[in-house]
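lol forgot to send this yesterday, sorry. struct tokens for the thing we talked abt
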């Protein structure tokens, strides 16, 4: 369940990031192709940062080992 909610939220965040960059670039007089490229680039950077934080979190959680006998 958490994976589906996380994917839905990340999709919305990525779309909002793309939309805001594209709109700001296009409204500022940039050509449509350049505005689209800027939006895709910023969305890709956001996804890469999110993936990097997920990897770091997985590595940190993987280091925690339970001690003692299982209950």
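and heres what i got for the seq, position by position
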């Amino acid at each position: 369940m958490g994976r589906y909610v996380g994917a839905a939220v990340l999709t919305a965040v990525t779309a909002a990031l793309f939309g805001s960059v594209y709109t700001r670039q296009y409204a500022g007089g940039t050509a449509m192709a350049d505005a689209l490229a800027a939006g895709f680039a910023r969305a890709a950077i956001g996804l890469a940062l999110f993936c990097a934080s997920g990897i770091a979190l997985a590595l940190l959680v993987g280091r925690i080992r339970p001690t003692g006998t299982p209950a």
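Residues 32-62 form the longest helix (31 residues). anyway ping me if u want another try
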